[in-house]
Design brief:
The protein is of the alpha/beta class. Helices cover about 35% and strands about 25% of the residues. It is globular. It starts with 15 loop residues before the first helix and ends with a strand. Bound molecules: S-adenosylmethionine.
Length: about 210
Protein backbone atom coordinates (compact mmCIF):
# COMPACT_ATOMS: atom_id res chain seq x y z
CA UNK A 1 0.00 0.00 0.00
CA UNK A 2 1.44 3.36 -1.00
CA UNK A 3 1.84 5.68 1.98
CA UNK A 4 1.59 8.75 -0.26
CA UNK A 5 -0.67 11.33 1.40
CA UNK A 6 -2.01 8.68 3.77
CA UNK A 7 -3.50 10.22 6.94
CA UNK A 8 -2.73 8.47 10.26
CA UNK A 9 -4.50 5.15 10.66
CA UNK A 10 -7.91 5.64 12.26
CA UNK A 11 -10.67 3.08 11.63
CA UNK A 12 -13.49 5.39 12.72
CA UNK A 13 -15.93 5.39 9.77
CA UNK A 14 -15.91 9.20 9.54
CA UNK A 15 -12.11 9.57 9.89
CA UNK A 16 -9.81 11.17 7.33
CA UNK A 17 -8.04 7.84 6.95
CA UNK A 18 -11.23 5.98 5.98
CA UNK A 19 -12.23 8.82 3.61
CA UNK A 20 -8.78 8.64 1.96
CA UNK A 21 -9.01 4.86 1.54
CA UNK A 22 -12.55 5.18 0.19
CA UNK A 23 -11.62 7.74 -2.43
CA UNK A 24 -8.81 5.49 -3.66
CA UNK A 25 -10.90 2.35 -3.99
CA UNK A 26 -14.33 3.56 -5.06
CA UNK A 27 -13.63 3.81 -8.84
CA UNK A 28 -12.17 0.30 -9.23
CA UNK A 29 -14.98 -1.18 -7.11
CA UNK A 30 -17.56 0.65 -9.24
CA UNK A 31 -16.04 -0.80 -12.41
CA UNK A 32 -16.30 -4.30 -10.92
CA UNK A 33 -19.90 -3.77 -9.78
CA UNK A 34 -20.82 -2.66 -13.30
CA UNK A 35 -19.83 -6.16 -14.45
CA UNK A 36 -21.48 -8.03 -11.58
CA UNK A 37 -24.67 -6.31 -10.44
CA UNK A 38 -27.99 -7.45 -11.98
CA UNK A 39 -29.25 -5.72 -15.14
CA UNK A 40 -32.85 -6.20 -13.99
CA UNK A 41 -34.45 -4.28 -11.11
CA UNK A 42 -33.29 -5.58 -7.73
CA UNK A 43 -32.21 -4.87 -4.17
CA UNK A 44 -28.60 -4.35 -3.04
CA UNK A 45 -27.46 -4.29 0.61
CA UNK A 46 -24.23 -2.76 1.87
CA UNK A 47 -22.92 -4.09 5.20
CA UNK A 48 -20.79 -1.83 7.43
CA UNK A 49 -21.54 1.24 5.26
CA UNK A 50 -19.72 3.61 7.63
CA UNK A 51 -19.91 7.14 6.18
CA UNK A 52 -22.06 5.98 3.24
CA UNK A 53 -19.56 7.34 0.72
CA UNK A 54 -19.45 4.12 -1.30
CA UNK A 55 -23.14 3.37 -1.57
CA UNK A 56 -23.89 7.00 -2.47
CA UNK A 57 -21.14 6.98 -5.09
CA UNK A 58 -22.34 3.72 -6.69
CA UNK A 59 -26.13 4.23 -6.58
CA UNK A 60 -26.52 6.80 -9.42
CA UNK A 61 -24.80 4.38 -11.81
CA UNK A 62 -27.54 1.76 -11.27
CA UNK A 63 -30.90 3.57 -11.38
CA UNK A 64 -32.73 0.24 -11.85
CA UNK A 65 -31.44 -1.03 -8.46
CA UNK A 66 -32.38 0.00 -4.91
CA UNK A 67 -29.53 0.38 -2.43
CA UNK A 68 -29.83 -0.33 1.29
CA UNK A 69 -27.06 1.06 3.54
CA UNK A 70 -26.46 -0.44 7.00
CA UNK A 71 -24.07 -0.44 9.93
CA UNK A 72 -23.98 -1.95 13.37
CA UNK A 73 -25.23 1.21 15.10
CA UNK A 74 -26.97 4.37 13.93
CA UNK A 75 -23.92 6.56 14.68
CA UNK A 76 -23.26 7.40 11.01
CA UNK A 77 -26.84 7.29 9.73
CA UNK A 78 -27.29 11.08 9.69
CA UNK A 79 -24.13 11.34 7.56
CA UNK A 80 -25.32 8.63 5.16
CA UNK A 81 -28.66 10.40 4.72
CA UNK A 82 -26.95 13.80 4.29
CA UNK A 83 -24.83 12.44 1.42
CA UNK A 84 -27.88 10.80 -0.13
CA UNK A 85 -29.95 13.98 0.04
CA UNK A 86 -27.12 16.24 -1.20
CA UNK A 87 -26.58 13.93 -4.16
CA UNK A 88 -30.29 13.41 -4.82
CA UNK A 89 -29.97 9.62 -4.73
CA UNK A 90 -33.59 8.55 -4.87
CA UNK A 91 -32.59 4.85 -5.01
CA UNK A 92 -30.80 4.84 -1.61
CA UNK A 93 -33.02 3.80 1.31
CA UNK A 94 -32.77 5.02 4.90
CA UNK A 95 -29.97 3.06 6.63
CA UNK A 96 -30.72 -0.03 8.72
CA UNK A 97 -28.96 -1.08 11.94
CA UNK A 98 -27.49 -4.50 11.04
CA UNK A 99 -24.95 -5.93 13.47
CA UNK A 100 -23.19 -8.89 11.88
CA UNK A 101 -22.75 -10.51 15.28
CA UNK A 102 -26.45 -10.19 16.17
CA UNK A 103 -28.85 -12.24 13.98
CA UNK A 104 -31.91 -10.61 15.57
CA UNK A 105 -30.94 -7.39 13.69
CA UNK A 106 -30.87 -9.05 10.25
CA UNK A 107 -33.76 -8.39 7.83
CA UNK A 108 -35.93 -11.00 6.09
CA UNK A 109 -34.82 -14.03 4.12
CA UNK A 110 -33.94 -13.88 0.45
CA UNK A 111 -34.39 -10.15 0.18
CA UNK A 112 -31.20 -9.07 -1.65
CA UNK A 113 -29.85 -9.80 -5.11
CA UNK A 114 -26.41 -8.59 -4.07
CA UNK A 115 -24.58 -7.62 -0.88
CA UNK A 116 -21.23 -5.92 -0.49
CA UNK A 117 -18.89 -5.01 2.35
CA UNK A 118 -15.80 -2.80 2.05
CA UNK A 119 -12.81 -2.62 4.39
CA UNK A 120 -14.06 -4.20 7.59
CA UNK A 121 -11.82 -7.21 8.11
CA UNK A 122 -8.54 -5.41 8.79
CA UNK A 123 -10.14 -3.81 11.86
CA UNK A 124 -12.57 -6.57 12.90
CA UNK A 125 -12.03 -10.04 14.39
CA UNK A 126 -11.95 -12.94 11.93
CA UNK A 127 -14.93 -14.37 13.86
CA UNK A 128 -17.10 -11.69 12.23
CA UNK A 129 -16.79 -13.75 9.02
CA UNK A 130 -19.15 -16.33 10.49
CA UNK A 131 -21.83 -13.70 11.12
CA UNK A 132 -21.32 -12.16 7.70
CA UNK A 133 -21.65 -15.51 5.91
CA UNK A 134 -24.66 -16.54 7.99
CA UNK A 135 -26.27 -13.17 7.24
CA UNK A 136 -25.51 -13.47 3.50
CA UNK A 137 -26.77 -17.05 3.43
CA UNK A 138 -30.04 -15.90 4.97
CA UNK A 139 -30.54 -12.68 3.00
CA UNK A 140 -29.33 -13.45 -0.53
CA UNK A 141 -31.68 -14.55 -3.29
CA UNK A 142 -30.91 -17.95 -4.83
CA UNK A 143 -28.51 -16.54 -7.45
CA UNK A 144 -27.37 -13.52 -5.42
CA UNK A 145 -23.79 -12.81 -4.36
CA UNK A 146 -21.78 -11.25 -1.54
CA UNK A 147 -18.75 -9.16 -2.55
CA UNK A 148 -16.13 -8.48 0.14
CA UNK A 149 -13.41 -5.93 -0.65
CA UNK A 150 -10.18 -5.34 1.26
CA UNK A 151 -6.56 -6.38 1.81
CA UNK A 152 -6.12 -10.04 2.79
CA UNK A 153 -3.51 -12.71 3.39
CA UNK A 154 -3.54 -15.72 1.09
CA UNK A 155 -3.07 -19.21 2.62
CA UNK A 156 -0.97 -17.86 5.51
CA UNK A 157 1.25 -15.56 3.42
CA UNK A 158 1.31 -11.87 2.58
CA UNK A 159 0.78 -11.24 -1.12
CA UNK A 160 3.13 -8.22 -1.17
CA UNK A 161 5.72 -6.60 1.14
CA UNK A 162 3.46 -3.53 1.36
CA UNK A 163 0.58 -5.64 2.71
CA UNK A 164 2.94 -7.11 5.31
CA UNK A 165 3.98 -3.57 6.22
CA UNK A 166 0.32 -2.52 6.52
CA UNK A 167 -0.37 -5.57 8.71
CA UNK A 168 2.54 -4.62 10.97
CA UNK A 169 1.28 -1.03 11.26
CA UNK A 170 -2.14 -2.38 12.28
CA UNK A 171 -0.62 -4.87 14.74
CA UNK A 172 1.58 -2.19 16.31
CA UNK A 173 -1.56 -0.32 17.43
CA UNK A 174 -1.97 -3.02 20.09
CA UNK A 175 -5.64 -3.71 19.29
CA UNK A 176 -6.28 -7.45 19.43
CA UNK A 177 -8.48 -7.66 16.32
CA UNK A 178 -6.53 -5.34 14.00
CA UNK A 179 -4.49 -6.98 11.24
CA UNK A 180 -4.98 -8.61 7.85
CA UNK A 181 -7.13 -11.74 7.83
CA UNK A 182 -6.67 -14.80 5.62
CA UNK A 183 -8.91 -15.53 2.62
CA UNK A 184 -8.80 -19.20 3.66
CA UNK A 185 -10.66 -18.35 6.90
CA UNK A 186 -13.36 -16.48 4.99
CA UNK A 187 -13.71 -19.39 2.59
CA UNK A 188 -14.13 -21.86 5.47
CA UNK A 189 -16.71 -19.61 7.17
CA UNK A 190 -18.60 -19.38 3.86
CA UNK A 191 -18.57 -23.13 3.27
CA UNK A 192 -19.98 -23.74 6.76
CA UNK A 193 -22.97 -21.60 5.72
CA UNK A 194 -23.59 -23.12 2.30
CA UNK A 195 -21.68 -20.47 0.30
CA UNK A 196 -18.55 -20.82 -1.82
CA UNK A 197 -15.78 -18.50 -2.89
CA UNK A 198 -16.76 -18.15 -6.55
CA UNK A 199 -14.22 -15.50 -7.59
CA UNK A 200 -11.09 -13.95 -6.14
CA UNK A 201 -10.29 -10.79 -8.08
CA UNK A 202 -7.06 -8.78 -7.78
CA UNK A 203 -7.76 -5.08 -7.24
CA UNK A 204 -5.40 -2.04 -7.28
CA UNK A 205 -3.16 -1.30 -4.27
CA UNK A 206 -2.89 -5.00 -3.35
CA UNK A 207 -6.53 -5.46 -2.42
CA UNK A 208 -8.96 -8.22 -3.37
CA UNK A 209 -12.61 -8.47 -4.23
CA UNK A 210 -13.99 -11.82 -3.07
CA UNK A 211 -17.30 -12.97 -4.51
CA UNK A 212 -19.28 -15.60 -2.60
CA UNK A 213 -22.30 -17.44 -3.99
CA UNK A 214 -24.47 -20.40 -3.03
C1 LIG B 1 -13.07 0.90 8.61
S1 LIG B 1 -14.82 1.22 8.66
C2 LIG B 1 -15.22 1.00 6.92
C3 LIG B 1 -16.48 1.71 6.57
C4 LIG B 1 -16.85 1.68 5.06
N1 LIG B 1 -17.20 0.35 4.61
C5 LIG B 1 -15.73 2.26 4.19
O1 LIG B 1 -15.06 1.50 3.51
O2 LIG B 1 -15.55 3.48 4.25
C6 LIG B 1 -15.43 -0.32 9.37
C7 LIG B 1 -16.95 -0.33 9.57
O3 LIG B 1 -17.35 -1.60 10.07
C8 LIG B 1 -18.44 -1.41 10.94
N2 LIG B 1 -18.62 -2.59 11.79
C9 LIG B 1 -17.76 -3.03 12.76
N3 LIG B 1 -18.27 -4.10 13.38
C10 LIG B 1 -19.48 -4.37 12.79
C11 LIG B 1 -20.50 -5.33 13.02
N4 LIG B 1 -20.39 -6.25 13.99
N5 LIG B 1 -21.61 -5.31 12.24
C12 LIG B 1 -21.73 -4.37 11.26
N6 LIG B 1 -20.80 -3.42 11.02
C13 LIG B 1 -19.70 -3.40 11.78
C14 LIG B 1 -18.04 -0.15 11.70
O4 LIG B 1 -19.14 0.45 12.38
C15 LIG B 1 -17.46 0.71 10.58
O5 LIG B 1 -18.45 1.51 9.98
Amino acid sequence: MSTENRPPLDPHPLSEYVAWAGHRNREPILELLKKKLPQAPGEVLELASGSGMHINFFAPHFPHLTFQPSDKTDETFAHIKKLRDEQGNLNVRDPLAIDLTEPSTWPGEGSYHAMFCINIFQVAPVSIADGMMACASRLLTEDGFLMIYGPFMLEGAFTTPSNEEFHNILRSAGVEEWGLKDIADLRKAAEARGLRLAEQIDMPANNFSLIFRR
